[in-house]
Design brief:
Length: 214
């Protein structure tokens, strides 16, 4: 049964494109049933056909909860098996997360639990870390705090800037996200009481994948 994936994105959508490319290449048994954005101008929306696009300007709403309620109704209408936040830059409120509990994933550009939130690359450089990377985790109401499913390290190189490091991390994000999306689409991934599991085995430490430089 082909898994139905809804994607939330706020920007360029390169992670969404990685999913689309994997599907087209027969490497991911899924279909994107909607792309949802808080930015009507997000290029991510242009990566799918018009009927699959949904966007609203969050400023048009009186509250985060009101925006999230419309978003949740639109996502639910697509009847997704999974909801993937791929470069979605708004915090999802508790009502949304609980409505899709256990089925919302997020790709985050750090080796969680390090560097939750924004500016992760600059923070890793500032700390003098030898390695940085990306994580895919289940979304819970607390920001970037859900069970981590898989991670991939990226070495910090001499002379790295936040931009050069971000570019290398983004390449790894794409491959990591496809890996986890495949686990989800193949019915191998679950979350129970805050613990991720693959094939019924709890992940007490995240899977660690090593990707050769692209
Ligand atoms: C990137 O900075 C990525 O690290 C994070 O969201 C941003 C945009 O990603 N996940 P995308 O190109 O829109 O997928």
């Amino acid at each position: 049964m082909t898994a139905r994936i809804a994607v939330l994105a706020s920007g360029g959508g390169s992670n969404l494109q990685a999913l689309l490319d994997a599907i087209a290449a027969g490497q991911l048994d899924a279909r994107i049933v909607g792309v949802f954005s808080d930015k009507p101008a997000a290029f991510a929306l242009q990566r799918v056909s018009e009927p699959l696009r949904w966007s609203r300007t969050s400023k048009a709403y009186p509250s985060r909860a009101a925006f999230d309620a419309d978003l949740a109704d639109a996502v639910a209408a697509a009847t997704p098996d999974w909801v993937v936040c791929a470069g979605y830059m708004r915090i999802l409120g508790e009502a949304f997360v609980l409505r899709f509990r256990g089925r919302v994933l997020n790709i985050h550009p750090s080796l969680l639990p390090k560097y939750r939130g924004l500016d992760t690359h600059a923070r890793a450089l500032e700390a003098g870390d030898a390695e940085h990377g990306a994580s895919v985790h289940f979304v819970i109401p607390e920001l970037d705090a859900g069970a981590v499913i898989a991670q991939a390290p990226v070495p910090v190189l001499a002379g790295d800037t936040a931009e050069s490091l971000a570019a290398r991390v983004l390449q790894v994000e794409h491959r990591l996200l496809v890996h986890v999306a495949r686990l989800a689409a193949d019915g191998r991934l679950a979350e129970h009481e805050g613990v991720a599991s693959v094939d019924g085995h709890p992940l007490f430490t995240p899977q660690r994948l090593e990707f050769a430089p692209a």
